[in-house]
From TrEMBL:
This is KaiB domain-containing protein. One of its GO terms (biological process) is rhythmic process. InterPro entries: KaiB-like, KaiB_domain, Thioredoxin-like_sf. It holds the Pfam family KaiB. Residues 25-106 form the KaiB domain. SUPFAM superfamilies: Thioredoxin-like (SSF52833).
Length: 113
């Protein structure tokens, strides 16, 4: 089950403490084409590779610019993998699936024969 939050909060649920659960924070700036592409690509990626094991938090820096400092955001859109540790960052619209897989340390799921 995915949970898309608009306001950042630290993970507190049992699922967030599960080492197989991914807590992802996407920093965007308004409804630009790159921001919208990053959101759509992230949702598609998560459903394909992390179904039931993720939650997405979208932080719009147009409304909350002070939040950029917490994760040291220098460019947008930026995806931050907060959990599992260690923290990872990917900059861009997330259209390159291989780059996202490598950047988040996720291996493509292999269907059983």
């Amino acid at each position: 089950m995915s949970d898309e939050r608009q306001n950042p909060a630290e993970p507190t649920t049992e699922a967030d403490l599960d080492p197989g659960h991914y807590h992802l924070r996407l920093y965007v700036a308004g409804q630009t084409s790159k921001s919208l592409a990053a959101m759509a690509n992230l949702k598609r990626f998560c459903e394909e590779h992390l179904a039931g094991r993720y939650d997405i938090e979208v932080v719009d820096l147009m409304t909350n610019p002070q939040l950029a400092a917490g994760d040291q955001i220098l460019a947008i859109p930026t995806l931050v993998r907060r959990l599992p540790s260690p923290l990872k960052r990917i900059i861009g619209d997330l259209s390159n699936t291989d780059k996202v897989l490598v950047g988040l340390d996720i291996r493509p799921k292999v269907d059983a024969p």
